[in-house]
Amino acid sequence: DYETALVIVNRMRLFAPDEPRLLFDQGVLQAKLGNIREAITTLESFIAVSQDRSTIQDARAFLAALKSGLN
Hints:
Elements: H1 2-15, H2 20-32, H3 36-49, H4 53-70
Helix pairs in contact: 1-2, 2-3, 2-4, 3-4
């Protein structure tokens, strides 16, 4: 379930705080749980630090969808 997955990702970030992919995963899980504003902040942080162009593109698309849902 998403709640358990988010707990696991949060714990993984304690051990690998500089791993950008965990930010992406965290943001997606936050969104799935309805924490949209928190997800937006997390995904924006991911985009700022990641160098994985493919995943950045995915994050931008997901972020745009989240933001459009707020309007």
